Amino acid sequence: MRLLLHVCCGPCALYPLEVLRTEGHEVQGYFFNPNIHPYAEYVRRKETLAAYAKGEGWPVIFAKEYPVEEYFRMVVYREAERCRFCYILRLQQAARVARHGGFEAFSTTLLVSPFQKHDLIREAGESIASAYGLTFAYRDFRPGFKEAVQRSKELNMYRQKYCGCLYSEKDRFIQKGQKE
């Protein structure tokens, strides 16, 4: 199957890409993550993915735009549901690119993380896929998370310490400060 894989970052791409390629799928990556804040973090994740993709001979589309304002408009005053809106924003754009590019399906590397909300991702992905006449290739890649972490360390990849959004960065520091 020809599949577009939305990629949140290089380390999270390792395991899903390996599994999908082993299964014989033609996989192309797509980096679109306007939730990542600050911009320097966005660039660092993008550069890490670009270096990995080049080394793997893996074609990845990098979105030219960084519509962080659109992300904030979607989540402001809905912070408790920010993940849902973030998934919808990114997966909807991935579906547009997949449809335009003639892909049969799309998926996301978000599915490798035990810290992401898989039910919400699956719900959003399947709803969006239906609207775009595509298949959302849901896979629970979490069993490969630890392997991907280890491999990313061996490859000296930049590994972020939060999901990417301003809110998760805030939560990380507040929780750390409360433990001390």
Describe the structure.
The chain is an alpha/beta fold and 180 residues long. Helix content is 54%, strand content 11%. It has a single domain, classed as Rossmann fold (3-Layer(aba) Sandwich), CATH 3.40.50.620. The chain has 7 helices and 5 strands; from the N terminus they run E-H-E-H-E-H-H-E-H-E-H-H. The protein has a 5-stranded parallel β-sheet with strand order 3-2-1-4-5, with helices on both faces. Helix 1 (10-22) links the parallel strand 1 and strand 2. Helix 1 packs across helix 6 and helix 4 (82-100) runs parallel beside helix 5. The mean pLDDT is 93.
Strands, helices and their partners?
Layout: E1 2-6, H1 10-22, E2 26-31, H2 39-56, E3 60-62, H3 68-75, H4 82-100, E4 105-108, H5 118-132, E5 135-136, H6 145-154, H7 166-179
Parallel strand pairs: 1-2, 1-4, 2-3, 4-5
Helix pairs in contact: 1-6, 4-5
- Gross morphology: globular
Q: What percentage of amino acids are in beta strands?
A: 5-15%
Query: Could you say what the CATH architecture is?
Result: 3-Layer(aba) Sandwich
CATH top level assignment: Alpha Beta
Could you state the oligomeric state of the chains shown?
single chain
Helix run count: 7
Radius of gyration, CA atoms, in whole angstroms: 16 Å
**Which strands sit side by side, in order, in the main sheet?**
3-2-1-4-5
| Helix residue percentage | 40-55%
Low-confidence stretches: none
**What is the total tally of β strands?**
5
Which features does this protein show?
5 strands; alpha/beta; 7 helices; 180 residues
